[in-house]
Amino acid sequence: MLGLMQDQPLLISSLIEFAERHHGDAEIVSRRAEGDIHRTTWREVAVRSRQVANALEAEQLLFSDRIATLAWNGYRHLELYYGVSGSGKVLHTINPRLHPDQIAWIANHAEDQILCFDLNFLPLVQAVHAKCGTIKKYVALCDADKLPVDSGIPNLVSYESWMGSRPGTYAWPTFDENSASSMCYTSGTTGNPKAALYSHRSTILHAYAAALPDVMALSARDSVLPVVPMFHVNAWGIPYSAALTGAKLVFPGPALDGKSVFELIEAEKVSFAAGVPTVWQMMLGHMQANGLKFSTLKRTVIGGSACPPAMINAFQQLYGVDVLHAWGMTEMSPLGTLCTLKNKHLSLPSEAQTAIRMKQGRAIFGVDMKIVDGDGNELPWDGKAYGDLLVKGPWIVKEYFKGEGGDPLLPDAEGRGWFPTGDVATIDADGFLQITDRSKDVIKSGGEWISSIDIENIAMAHPAVAMAACVGVAHPKWDERPIVVVVKKPNGEVSREELLAFYQGKTAKWQIPDDVVFVEAIPLGATGKILKTRLREQLRGYQLPQSA
Ligand code: AMP
Fold first, then answer.
1. Is 309 close to ligand 1, i.e. is its CB under 6 Å away?
2. What is the pLDDT of residues 36-68, one digit of tens each?
3. Residue of 331, 337, 426, 456 with catalytic role
4. How confident is the model over 147-188, as pLDDT tens digits?
5. Is 306 in the pocket of ligand 1 (CB under 6 A)?
6. CB–CB of 273/249 below 8 Å?
7. Is 477 a catalytic residue?
8. 3-state SS of the chain: helix, strand, coil percent to 5?
9. CA proximity to 183, closest of 68, 87, 102
């Protein structure tokens, strides 16, 4: 017997309809590439999303055709999120920090039909358009009078002239909720990138889950600043969860330096912000140097790479801001776990609570996870056993776009597939996940594993250290030994010996790095993560000290 509830597909268009009807006057504030602040509302975004949908109808595209963006976080990008997916096309957000050849490669692989881009990326589009064979139209996200002349880009129009004259009425179509809605290519440090292809259903379920109290706790009382880019995994789903809750949205545009982000938080009374550790590092540096305090920020979700404990402490103790440490990946839409305490933890002393907050947190309903040994046997949840982390759930990929890389899933006893995350982790008895490493970054020393994240976190707690990366170096006796590569703060002073002494008592003796290498900068990838492959290349020829 089937239930007798209405059969209504979960579609992204329902989010913008809801936001328009129930939260029409909630604000969407954007710092534009031009530097000025633009203000609009969910109501206007809804109207303009329908104008975008009408503009797309006029292009005679097919259902599921891909529309690409090269854009910062801003209201026009938000309109494309809804106009493109809502009308049955697929929004392909491209990471502008990728190499131009890689951008052309993925535009061709995705068979993008239209590319919408912020004017800051004009030189990039000029460099790649000749190689992007499938793109028929280029839309510059600007007013008609700002459209560059003699750009050399064929079929170039301004966004405002393209969609501006179209009607603001449009009946969002109804279709299968499993239809593709958006796509994002993985960072692809090795080989060609592969695309996660999200569906309407996966996006809506993820949006519900992200808003839950033990996840981002979003509400109509929040002013939300996604510093995490809309070109990477849909800004962690915030553009959707904000519509679902009626939150105010604040977009930083291209200005991601500490001063600009801090000023925007203060000016727009931001209560909740989301970003990767490197962005917050810049902002905390700016605040500390200028003796600044937050007046409205209450919570910040930090993920994408391990959040150093020193950063969690700084937010918590210096500024009274709750850090929600999160873990996820492109293939997971991206949220997998988020760290919030349980009721029984509330009576623990603050150090014990802090120790829990350092972990990546508990699985969100919808994400099933387990850790396994090399033979695929499940390992205990005791906070000590570490193994390969596997996940499954309705917002986790089952395969990549166009079947690239074959079937990624591993079967279990019931024949259902688990997605191998490539991360190594422990899970404790309360279900709190702790990421030890990427499996390829873990350091194997004398048959034991050393977590590069642990070694980096200790260095990051030193007041003179701005950034630290730990890598393994081949060793004749121990197989590999860790060294730590360090960027000092502008006025930071610390010697190799002082930093090694700083490790004493903070980790087992045999895990203390054998050397410290000071550098001007550590290579970061397109999503702000440390590029260990490139770092290892830079260290080629490096010799461990004789004593090691
Ligand atoms: P991406 O798909 O580019 O977002 O990268 C996903 C990967 O980033 C994960 O598989 C982890 O290796 C890493 N990652 C994400 N969040 C965290 C976190 N909080 N701590 C440690 N690693 C993380």
1. no
2. 999 999 999 999 999 999 999 999 999 999 999
3. 331
4. 999 999 999 999 999 999 999 999 999 999 999 999 999 865
5. yes
6. no
7. no
8. 30, 25, 45
9. 68
